């Protein structure tokens, strides 16, 4: 089973990366082939992803095409993003916009992302975590991804004077449920 993990954080060693790295290790221990991509290493052209007839462009840059091809080959994709201003990172937004070109892709395949398993990890210190998770879930579901129970999770770093962080086991929970979903 092939699992692609996508770090939407501009920080390669921040909390989002740390959680994705622990998640990647969990998948590896389950015998999955894994790859972790840092979106900060990708140049996303900022031209509009639709042409003048409102049709998706079929030829994104080679760098973005490589990521899209990896998405198509993966059995499961874990999307990790920090929360900025109650929204996902601009890097994750750019990826979603560029994924539009593979959302519906006739004549080869009508919906190439249909029934691929997705997981979502959001990181932030405010209440935006759940809003960002919901935003991503709606977009990914519309593209055809299947998100299993407990496949969406969030992490709030411990802050002085707050309750115990219940989500210390984010990677373990998501690995267990994604592996189960891939086997279904």
CA-CA gap between termini: 12 Å
Overall mean pLDDT stands at 81
Number of helices: 5
Overall geometric form: globular
Q: How many distinct folded domains?
A: 1
The CATH superfamily is identified as Flavodoxin domain
Structural class: alpha/beta
The amount of helix comes to 25-40%
- Quaternary state, please? single chain
CATH top level is Alpha Beta
**Percent of sequence in beta strands:** 15-25%
The name of the CATH architecture is 3-Layer(aba) Sandwich
Provide the gyration radius in Å: 16 Å
Low-confidence stretches: none
CATH topology: Rossmann fold
Strand element count: 5
Major sheet? 5 strands, parallel
List the strand order in the largest sheet.
2-1-3-4-5
The sequence of SSEs as H and E is EHEHEHEHEH
């Amino acid at each position: 089973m092939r699992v692609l993990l996508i770090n939407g954080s501009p920080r390669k060693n921040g909390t989002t990366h740390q959680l994705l790295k622990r998640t990647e290790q969990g998948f590896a221990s389950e015998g999955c082939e894994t790859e972790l991509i840092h979106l900060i290493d990708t140049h996303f052209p900022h031209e509009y992803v639709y042409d003048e007839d409102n049709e998706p462009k079929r030829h994104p840059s080679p760098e973005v095409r490589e990521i899209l091809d990896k998405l198509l080959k993966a059995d499961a994709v874990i999307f990790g993003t920090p929360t900025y201003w109650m929204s996902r990172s601009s890097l994750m937004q750019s990826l979603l916009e560029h994924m539009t070109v593979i959302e519906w892709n006739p004549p080869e395949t009508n919906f190439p992302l249909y029934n691929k398993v997705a997981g979502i990890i959001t990181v932030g210190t405010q209440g935006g975590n759940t809003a960002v998770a919901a935003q991503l879930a709606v977009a990914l579901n519309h593209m055809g991804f299947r998100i299993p129970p407990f496949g969406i999770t969030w992490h709030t770093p411990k802050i002085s004077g707050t309750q115990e962080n219940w989500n210390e086991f984010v990677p373990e929970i998501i690995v267990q449920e994604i592996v189960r979903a891939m086997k279904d």
